[in-house]
Amino acid sequence: MAVITLFWLPVLFMACSGDTAPKASHAALDNNLQETSLEKEVRTLMEKGISLEERKQQVPVIKQAFARLTTPERARNLAALCYLKTLGTPFSPLDLAEIALAETGGHRLSSKATSSMGAMGVWQLMPREARNHGYSPSEMRNDEKCAEAAVRTLLSKLTVANGNMDKAKKFYCGTGPQAEAYLRKIRSIRSSLTAEIKRSNAQFAMNDKDSAVQ
Fold this sequence. Notes:
The chain is mainly alpha-helical. The chain has one domain (9-14, 40-194): Lysozyme, CATH 1.10.530. It is 60% helix and 0% strand. It has helices at residues 9-15, 37-47, 52-67, 72-84, 93-104, 127-132, 143-160, 165-173, 177-213. The radius of gyration is 18 Å and the shape is globular.
């Protein structure tokens, strides 16, 4: 897997293209809107009411949660994927992170994890789901491809759920009692991560206040 380094917003947006090097088009003016593709992406996100600063604040907490289960480098890479692959979607990095933790947290977020039903990768995509979204089942061993497929799958479930995010996540698992238990697990993970973000923000605000006083 290619190493993804967190250099924050400018580089993260350039990396969002999925290429190994930033394309020149990110610096070119859009012929119709007279704005760069980066500016267009930021504008689109803002129109959706999604705070880029909030997204940024989620990543360190996600990385810490992942680091409890895997190596620091892998935790950093997976946290970056949660950020990058949800840009321009209705989802936040937390949405992708909590699914990873629910699906393979018990398997140390291994890309080699395979369920008894045949679901594969960190985000546990079934072969049929992978194919439905343009991927081969073997590509689910690749964290980046698996993250992309997970986002596309969640988008399709969101449509079926008529925009209800909780239902979409439940449908990601399936139906019946197992899906209900899965949703409860997702909510518990979200609650824990959200509480950690609040603590982190409060500590940052306190440090900032102390620095201002000095």
